[in-house]
Amino acid sequence: MAKRSSLSIRIIEGKNLPAKDITGSSDPYCIVKVDNESIIRTATVWKTLCPFWGEEYQVHLPPTFHAVSFYVMDEDALSRDDVIGKVCLTRDTLASHPKGFSGWTHLTEVDPDEEVQGEIHLRLEVVPGIRASRLRCSVLQARDLASKDRNGASDPFVRVHYNGRTQETSVVKKSCYPRWNETFEFELEEGSPKALFVEAWDWDLVSKNDFLGKVVVNVQRLRAAQQEEGWFRLQPDQSKSRRGEGNLGSLQLEVRLRDETVLPSSCYQPLVQLLCREVKLGTQDPGQLIPIIEETTSAECRQEVATNLLKLFLGQGLAKDFLDLLFQLELGRTSEANTLFRSNSLASKSMESFLKVAGMQYLHGVLGPIIDRVFEEKKYVELDPSKVEVKDVGCSGLHRSQTESEVLEQSAQTLRAHLRALLNAICRSVRACPAVVRATFRQLFRRVHERFPNAQHENVPFIAVTSFLCLRFISPAIMSPRLFHLRERHADARTSRTLLLLAKAVQNVANMDTPVSRAKEAWMEPLQPTVRQGVTQLKDFIMKLVGIEEKEELDLQQTLNLQVPLVKEGPLFIHRTKGKGPLTSSSFKKLHFSLTTEALSFAKTSSSKKSAFIKLTSIQAAEKVEEKSFGSSHVMQVIYTDDVGQPQTIYLQCKCVNELNQWLSALRKVSINNPGLLGSYHPGIFRGDKWSCCHQKDKTDRGCDKTRSRVTLQEWNDPLDHDLEAQLIYRHLLGVEAALREKFRLLSGDTEAGTSTTGPGGAPEDSLAQLLHVLQDLQEAHNSSLVNLTPTERHHLLELQT
User: Fold this and answer.
1) How confident is the model at residue 96 (pLDDT cuts 50, 70, 90)?
2) Does 119-233 match 2-111+243-258 at the fold level?
3) Where are the beta strands (DSSP E) in 701-746?
4) Percent of the chain with pLDDT over 90
5) How far are the Cα atoms of 296, 327, 337 from residue 334, in angstroms, in the given order?
6) Do 709 and 668 contact (CB within 8 A), yes or no?
7) Which of 114, 173, 548, 642 is the 20 to 30 Å CA partner of 257?
8) What are the start-end ranges of the H helices in 511-568?
9) 2-111+243-258: what CATH class?
């Protein structure tokens, strides 16, 4: 049994932001922090006070996190980026919204006294005395304190206040992981205060000391417990009156917290086996659960359910069979060919998820070069005469402004070139298309042809394929390349218009150049010759795609299965001096890294035959490095054991926070089951004779900060988590259990739900009765797991004062 927590985050847009630039505008982006650790950076939207991002993320993290914060920043090329404001959502706030927090929220000013982080290790005791008891407070150490100085660290000390007396620890210079091991005592008398205050501060020689956070201890509860020791989270100074929201603008967010208790695999086997049996039997068995599940699933959560089911069947090797069943169900209730797969049915949503999970690498290979070219050329392109702006084009070679007709002709030439390049790339990609995707499209083509065999419907099977491949996959990626990880930045207005027009052209090709699609926007006519040629090319491509025999497909899949799957690759900078040389940028050398399910390898280039590697099973931790260590906040360390079992560390520099977190996430996911994972690490480096983070002189010291192996970002190429997907499906079915029981009652008359247990091949209510039994058993297993839990949380002495 394991507790899994995840955050689904959608950063939609901002409005009425203040201007931070002399031009009267801003260049806003968002930083997302979980407990003050940066995990996400959106793209920058240039020159606007009402930015639209539309970016979605899912973060897996420990259940113990406290808050998620959204900082809206203004990017500056020459100086430090400005902080516009922030929105902070606590775990309790998110837990109070089971369906997710959604809406507009005012940005608040960032108060330095509230920007606290980290924990402090205290030992608290009530010591009996002859005249009066004494309160003993031992300040041992702290970790992950906020850095307040330019060197990326702080000079922390602690003040302990009780009953009008204040005592202070010594100052530890240049550390966010200080160790004090100092003890203070106070007399406990009748009528003494009920609270002990422990405050952490950053010492400054010239300016005022910076507040780092505080802990408030309830002395009455401590008297009852007599003693307590542990790590206490530092809290902001809430005694100050909150600053007003001012005119900082608003941020529109959708954030959902999901906590799941995942049971052992054996508990989910009855549910998995029941669903798999239904898919294997297909529409031949009248007792279909899949259509009942679709019927009881609301449109609001259909995409989520489709994704969970798709991943479950992918893990069971039944994705093609599951989708084939959905194809047959949709074809069975469709009478008009032109409405086929046009609704947001379970089939449509499942295919969208399938293509993103199984076809994203294929999409990048086909579409990536064309998108890159559009971004690099930055040409003004417009076909709609009512929107042409001649002034945006500049002058021609004859030093005169271009006419409207010249702009339209030049735009048409540019779009025709991009469309031809894309169609040629698609036509060359038959073998590059993943085998399971080809097999699924082949099955879809056959099913549609069987349903609409007449001559007037000869294009319908082709349109069925293109409705998914082009309309729901390639075209959305063209319009929003950032959301499909094709670019790191959003397109500017000019590039966005080019991409939109290109996507429209692709849609016309995908619709087989029907008169209806041409009539919608007559000004697209200059592209019609290329569109018509594209229809012929696309039909030829589909015939090749679905024409590969199943035996050849199986042989190819077996060949692919022998290859070690690539998890992530790309250039990184490796530190060559291993912590011994000077702290300069020249200490890093650029190499190409490849992460597979077996090793992390690196070489001079991606094609180099000679490379070094680290076995995946030897990785013990992948963590961030303090900014002060190398003068960069984008450095990570991989801790591993070498061939003789000795611990080693390599330091790798990334180009941005997103790349850093993506690599950390990938490394953590592929090594999560390693037996030698570390529980603590040093966020600094060992230089000279001590660690830069905590100043300890023992190089083998176990570490001053806890590792974060469970903090990962969900991506399309994540390994499947079969138990989690089964748990999510169970959770959904439990939520619609009342509808399932009502459906059972209608199918079986007035028979009490859940009493029939006949085997497969029976009436529809038989399978539904088995499903209800399985849900009941899983619910009992969850209840038993809660009863048998051993209490692990310590008695809290912390009491927040307002």
Assistant:
1) very high
2) yes
3) 705-706, 712-713
4) 56
5) 19, 11, 7
6) yes
7) 114
8) 515-520, 528-547, 550-561
9) mainly beta
For 432-478, what is each residue's pLDDT tens digit? 999 889 999 999 999 999 999 998 889 999 999 999 999 999 999 99
Give the CA distances from residue 179 to residues 119, 122, 706, in Å, rounded to whole numbers and listed in that order: 12, 11, 15
Q: What is the DSSP string of 264-325?
A: PHHHHHHHHHHHHHHHHHGGGSS--SHHHHHHTS-GGGHHHHHHHHHHHHHHTT-HHHHHHH
pLDDT at residue 799, rounded to an integer: 33
Amino acid identity at 30 = C
User: Where does 144-285 show beta strands of DSSP type E?
Assistant: 156-162, 165-168, 179-187, 195-202, 210-218, 227-233, 250-262
**Single-letter code of the amino acid located at 311:** K
Asked if residue 795 lies in contact with residue 11, where contact means CB atoms within 8 angstroms, the answer is no
Q: How far is the C-alpha of 139 from the C-alpha of 124, rounded, in Å? A: 9
- Residue 400: per-residue pLDDT: 61
Catalogue the long-range contacts made by 325-328 (C-beta closer than 8 Å, 24 or more residues apart).
Answer: 325/279, 325/282, 325/283, 325/290, 326/290, 326/350, 326/351, 327/443, 327/444, 327/447, 327/448, 328/282, 328/283, 328/447
pLDDT at 580 over 60: no
Task: Specify the residue for token string 């670019």.
Answer: 487
Give the residue from 406, 442, 407 showing the smallest Cα distance to 545. Answer: 442
Q: Rounded to whole angstroms, how far apart are CA atoms 656 and 90?
A: 27
Looking at every residue in the chain, the average pLDDT score rounds to 86
Query: Per-residue pLDDT averaged across 68-94, rounded?
Result: 91
Pairing state between β 680-681 and 588-596: unpaired
Contact 360, 484 (CB under 8 A): yes
Nearest to 541 by CA among 515, 512, 577: 512
Give 790's DSSP letter.
Answer: P
Return left, alpha or beta for 103; rule: phi > 0 is left, psi -120 to 50 is alpha, else beta.
left
**Class of domain 119-233 as given by CATH:** mainly beta
Alpha carbon 93 to its chain centroid, in Å, reads 21
Q: Which of 125, 222, 203 is nearest to 159 (CA)?
A: 203
How many other CB atoms are found less than 10 A from the CB of residue 399?
6
Sheet holding 165-168, edge to edge: 165-168, 156-162, 195-202, 210-218
Q: Which of 238-247, 362-371, 756-765 has the lowest mean pLDDT?
A: 756-765
Specify the CATH class of 566-713 in words. mainly beta
- Every domain of the chain and the residues it spans: 2-111+243-258, 119-233, 263-296+736-791, 359-561, 566-713
Coil/strand/helix, residue 341 = coil
User: What are the pLDDT digits (tens) for 720-731?
Assistant: 888 999 999 999
Average pLDDT on 591-599 reads: 91
Q: What is the distance between the alpha carbons of residues 93 and 176, in angstroms, rounded to a whole number? A: 29
Distance of CA 68 to the CA centre of its chain: 14
Q: 359-561: which CATH number, 2.60.40.730, 1.10.10.10, 1.10.506.10, 3.40.50.1100?
A: 1.10.506.10
Q: DSSP for 734-759?
A: HHTHHHHHHHHHHHHTTPPTT-----
Report DSSP state, residue 467: H
CB 260 within 8 A of CB 4: yes
| 650 φ/ψ sector (left φ>0, alpha ψ -120 to 50, else beta) | beta
